[in-house]
Amino acid sequence: MTTHSRTSRMLALGALAAATVFTASCGGGSSRPKDTAYVARDVETLYAEAKELLDTGRPKLAAALFDEVERQHPYSPWARRAQLMAAFSYYVSGDYNKTVTTAQRFLTIHPGNKDAPYAYYLIALSYYEQISDVQRDQKVTEQALKALQEVNRRFPQSEYASDARLKIDLVQDHLAGKEMEIGRYYERSGKWIAAQIRFQNVIDTYQTTSHAPEALYRLVETSLALGIKPEAVKYAAVLGANYPGNEWYEKAYELIEDHAAGVSAS
């Protein structure tokens, strides 16, 4: 799902800029830390150094230093902001597990904070960035879908929800693709009922995705293979009613003409 990664990162960065406007002055020294070992510093200096590291392309060090802000000054107003900045820095560095952990911790401590929508969004993006091709396990894809739906459910009018809805469609199409791959495998193996279960799941759960027409066609195929001609006719009729000009309907029509002509749908 890397095609949209750049857009996601740009939106995340823009949202962070809006979410992290801080009225206090970032005064203090401008020297860059050689490492993030514990060295007592005033909060303004720590935050400024962490921000500089992030701005100069060293997000891993920045994340560690933002964490240090919270450790050294846990009751400072800067600590809450640093926690969110740490989550974003981990996201930029590609450490999605730490992004999720840090953002979830932020939400646990500050559930009603005005920046909570952004924390939920970062969690969703972190799962989304890890989506792999359909040949692999799709657990993280399901996590991404759930997290994106949570953003949309909690904050439907936000800019995050708008982006989440777009990604939800893509994730559902991806999950449908996985179901189709498994279904086709079962069909090639002659496991017609197992194949039908997968194709039917696409129709029941992912009917708005691009895979629905093929799923209906495959149900025509497997029904004919099982000798259930009325069912095959029924699926072909549904395919024709919903996708009349689709190539899969044309193929289904040919199958019915060759193997179930004159049969009525059950």
Q: How confident is the prediction overall: mean pLDDT? A: 86
Output the CATH homologous superfamily of the domain at 190-266.
Answer: Tetratricopeptide repeat domain
- Taken from the alpha-carbon principal axes, the silhouette is elongated
Largest sheet: none
Elements, N to C (H/E):
HHHHHHHHHHHH
Number of strands: 0
> What is the highest CATH level, the class of the domain at 190-266?
Mainly Alpha
List the uncertain runs. 17-34
CA-to-CA gap between the ends? 41 Å
Query: What level of helicity do the residues show?
Result: over 70%
Number of helices: 12
CATH topology of the domain at 190-266: Serine Threonine Protein Phosphatase 5, Tetratricopeptide repeat
Fraction of residues in β-strands:
under 5%
Tell me briefly what this model is:
The chain is an all-alpha fold and about 270 residues long. It has helices at about 5-20, 45-55, 60-70, 75-95, 95-110, 115-130, 140-155, 160-190, 190-205, 210-225, 230-240, 245-260.
How would you describe this structure to a colleague?
The protein is mainly α and 266 residues long. It has a domain at 190-266: Serine Threonine Protein Phosphatase 5, Tetratricopeptide repeat (Alpha Horseshoe), CATH 1.25.40.10. It has helices at 5-19, 43-55, 59-72, 77-93, 96-109, 116-128, 139-154, 159-188, 192-205, 212-225, 229-242, 247-259. Mean pLDDT is 86; it is low at 17-34.
Chain-wise SSE layout:
Blueprint: H1 5-19, H2 43-55, H3 59-72, H4 77-93, H5 96-109, H6 116-128, H7 139-154, H8 159-188, H9 192-205, H10 212-225, H11 229-242, H12 247-259
Helix pairs in contact: 1-6, 2-3, 2-4, 3-4, 4-5, 5-6, 6-7, 6-8, 7-8, 8-9, 8-10, 9-10, 10-11, 10-12, 11-12
